[in-house]
Design goal:
The chain is an alpha+beta fold and 331 residues long. 22% of the residues lie in helices and 34% in strands. Strands 9, 10, 11, 15, 18, 19, 20, 21, 22, 23, 24 and 25 form a 12-stranded antiparallel sheet that branches. A 3-stranded antiparallel sheet has the order 12-8-26, with no helix packed on it. A two-stranded antiparallel ribbon has the order 1-6. Helix 1 packs antiparallel against helix 3.
């Protein structure tokens, strides 16, 4: 067989892989929070006909044999890397119980309702590393799409029915003094207020409450309006969303459903969970992030990739004609 045919087959496969990536990008042009992927090629293996040589010289320094560059036959191209473009996209206002992260970072979600404790939440290097191990071991799902709702049990969930994690308020439910950053919990609206509570007026103590409305502000605070059995209404704070920040967010694994996964030992580096605002990006209440797919770029890439595929297919045709000539030599 001809080396040219082997190279062409490898080139066809590599270009087909790139078309697959382009097709996925275009298919998700209207997917909220989608991050486009970039495909690159690399050359495949080589057969060395003659190696590189520096030549030889006698003991007087006079060259006796000249140097020579290597001679090698290549065997086509293959997949180099498929990288993810994690740049932020245009926020789109949709209103309601939705939020967009105004910068880098991810909402923290999980399909199960667990409580992650033992976080240090300090700027000490050892504490950051310890917190990172705890968060990664929890096997959270991370998303850029803040499309939230409250389920029948009062839990805050995303569009995938995953629980949204954050921090519980400390002090009064109406005016919290702080949030418990030592613990990540699934945010939930309280169903009742204890009889001995000093949080709310006497009309609410010991009675079941019904959540009437909920909203999220730019600092990630989840506020709700509840009513008691007598129909009296009051505003409370349910909690505050946590934002996960990665040292290398391009190292995240896509998991479908607008989510990413991280695990211990991967290439995401350290991960920290913190409150929106300050050094952590704030939120844009009522907005959702659009896809960052650039259609102009994708169509131009599709054209060049199609031409590359066409050229490799033509090379197979030419190689076939050469082989046909060789077969016909016996006539």
């Amino acid at each position: 067989m001809l080396r040219a045919m082997d190279s062409a087959v490898a080139g066809l496969r590599a270009h087909q892989n790139k078309l697959d990536v382009i097709g996925n990008n275009i298919a998700n042009v209207n997917t909220n929070g989608f991050k486009s992927q970039n495909y690159t090629f690399k050359d495949a293996m080589y057969e060395t006909s003659s190696a590189s040589s520096g030549g030889e010289a006698d003991n007087t320094g006079k060259a006796t044999i000249g140097g020579a560059n290597p001679s090698q036959y290549g065997f086509g191209s293959m997949t180099g890397a498929i990288t993810t473009d994690m740049s932020s996209s245009t926020p789109t206002y949709v209103g309601g119980f939705n939020a967009n992260i105004n910068g880098a970072g991810f909402f923290i979600t999980k399909s199960s309702n667990d409580e992650i404790t033992g976080l240090k939440s300090t700027n000490n290097t050892d504490d950051i590393e310890a917190d990172s191990e705890i968060i990664k071991a929890a096997k959270f799902s991370y998303t850029r799409v803040g499309q939230f709702s409250i389920d029948a049990n009062g839990y805050m969930v995303d569009a995938n029915k995953n629980f949204v994690y954050g921090y519980q308020p400390q002090g009064s439910l109406q005016n919290p003094t702080a949030y418990n950053t030592k613990k990540l919990t699934a945010l939930r609206a309280p169903s009742s207020i204890p009889a001995n509570s000093t949080d709310l007026s006497g009309a609410f103590k010991g009675q079941a409450m019904q959540l009437k409305s909920v909203e999220i502000d730019n600092d990630g605070v989840i506020k709700g309006t509840v009513t008691n059995e007598n129909g009296e209404a009051v505003s409370i704070v349910i909690g505050k969303t946590a934002i996960a920040s990665f040292q290398n967010q391009e190292g995240l694994m896509k998991a479908g459903n607008n989510t990413f996964n991280a695990s211990v030992g991967d290439n995401t580096g350290l991960v920290t969970a913190s409150q929106p605002g300050g050094s952590t990006p704030s939120l844009m209440s009522g907005y959702l992030e659009a896809s960052n797919v650039d259609l102009a770029k994708e169509f131009s890439e599709m054209i060049t990739t199609e031409r590359g595929f066409q050229a490799n297919a033509k090379l197979i045709t030419v190689s076939d004609e050469v082989l046909q000539e060789l077969v016909n030599m016996k006539r």
